[in-house]
Prior knowledge:
The chain is 22% helix and 25% strand.
Amino acid sequence: xxxxxxxxxxxxxxxxxxxxxxGASDSPGRRAGGFVLTxxxxxxxxSNLFAADSGxxxxxxxxxxNEAAVHFPGLPLVGYEQGxxxxxxxxxxxxxxxxxxxxxxxxxxx
Length: 110
């Protein structure tokens, strides 16, 4: 599915995909967080993760990993994180593979 994308949200209706719920599951419609999955060739990018509060991070990561497996089975899941977000990624089973270098080109600049 190159070029495909899907997003997800974790909420009380999503507990089947995300055991443990949202931590605020008594509030119908309350979302614990969300994410974006983008299929680009042979990998799936995971980005734009957010949690309603710090108690929901593990739910959001678990839901993202599950959704990637459902929508893009067999493809590796990749992303870029740093600081606390990198720690959360590692706690969810991700492994760092290398340092990221970002290059910028601005036309007309020497």
